[in-house]
Amino acid sequence: MRNRMQIVAWIYVLPAFILLGAFLVYPVLRTVYWSFFGRNSESYVGLDNYQYLFTQQDVLIVFRNNLLWLVVFTGVTVGLGLILAVLTNLVRYEAVAKAVIFVPMAISFTAAAVIWRFMYVWNPASFEQTGVMNAVITTFGAEPVSWITNTSVNNYALIVAGIWMWTGFALVVISAGLKGISSEILEAARVDGANEFHIFRHILLPMLKPILVVVTVTLVINSLKVFDLVYVMTFGNFDTDVIANRMFKEMFQFGQFGRASAIAVILLVAIVPFMLFNIRRFLAER
Amino acid sequence: MKRGPYPVGPEDDSRGNLQEGAFEDEEVREEKEGSAKYPFGPAPAEEEGTGARLARAVGRGPLHAIIIGISIAWMIPALGLLVSSFRERQAITRTGWWEAFTTPTEFTIQNYQDVLTGQGMGTAFINSVIITVPATILTVMVAALAAYAFAWMPLPGRNWWFLLVVALMVVPIQLTLIPVLRLFADLGLTGTYWGIWLAHAAYGLPLGVFLLRNFFVALPKDLLESAFLEGASHTTAFFRIVLPLSVPSLAALGIFQFLWVWNDLLIALVYLGGTRDVAPMTVVISNLVSSFGTEWHLLTAAAFVSVILPLAIFFALQRYFVQGLLAGAVKG
Lengths: 286, 332
Prior knowledge:
A: mainly alpha; MetI-like fold; about 75% helix; globular
């Protein structure tokens, strides 16, 4: 009877195991293996692919850009989410404000890329500016900026699009944490004469810390994996390339499957510590 | 009470809690009268005259200005897209879309006709549906079966197997692209719906199994045990008891997976190759951007077509939507 039940149990998990084996377990091992092979995975090349990637000037720019994403995108999104969570908590139209900021989470990065390319439209100074960003800055007397191609601003321009998409996530999660904090604690602190800044700094922040950490880690992971926005907005041109897009280029533009595999492995190594953190917390919450 | 950010866990009795709390929270509403002096909770009770009330209203001015200002800033990019998609090509290149409100403008649906027929967005919309619906159903079905086995069946070493499945959430899909691509080439699955359905189903599984197993484990033990005592088989228990009780979880997972597949660009680009007649909207739009990067009358209309369904889902099924998205944000 028990044996029969076990067989039934295996039948239940079999479809999942086949799919996971074919699309995740086997390919990951293969990719790691192939990262030590040449462009068509035919000859063993040792660490050549990694050496190439870590010495190539334009690949180093790729790593720099992901670092920029990691710091600026994550920092601003968490900060903005925290501020908005605290502020919206005070007003009657909280639900509406949160919904408005959350909506971009529903749409694709591809659509967001179109939206933001349109925001950044640049026309020569003698013409009327039809992009919102340039219309705003020229109103204040500044020269129109070519946000997409100007290498001193374009990475930030792309990051702004990412922030627009993800702030709603940070806001909603932090806001849920905020509502879990009992008002009695805050009350007690006020009776003891703490001012609002002290309450924020010494009571709210420590109590929100676990949630802020989870949000931060989630955003860090997303900053390392960013692909669609860059692919559609610039295709990584003008010094805006990122790891995931560079991998795509190595595969389909250069036909360098060994290097592409090595890039994927680098991505895995960068992400795993954060992922493990998330999963550990996930399991702990269970 | 504890409210984790990922509400689809078993101990989280908050199904219908964070997701409702996400955008509206009745208990908190009353407290919002607290003055700006006390931003984090109710103000200490005190006598309040007209002067104080006026001062309070003025004091809250900056607060409202900030929130409303940011909310408007958040809407502007999308509003620009929507307005421009109804403007004529000439008008878009000559003046900013905001001037459509101040100067008399003729709106047109020509752009939509152009992208839907001329640029293939109509076909692409159908392709997106054809890709997304089976991929979603497949994920939820396969995940539910496995999750049930992990939760209620005598599977040897099931905790270890479960841990392995969860560990797969860490894998960025980039790690799988090249081997799967070659596998597809050998099997003739490149550029086919079957290839992309199976791939999406597989990528959605670790998260799906994790969420559903945690939900199934938390179902009342007595209920299932008495069913087994009365001679019900696992198949009966699964279909007649567990699935009907788990509709909220299944919905959250289903919506998350639906949007994930609908919005996906990378997997479609890689596994469907350049095959145009199966390309979903994301791929067609990205092609439009590279070939007509400044034809905004086409790009805006195409982008808007692609967001209609996600927006409709958002407004119709907000709570499952938020629940699913928050739970899935950890996906690799």
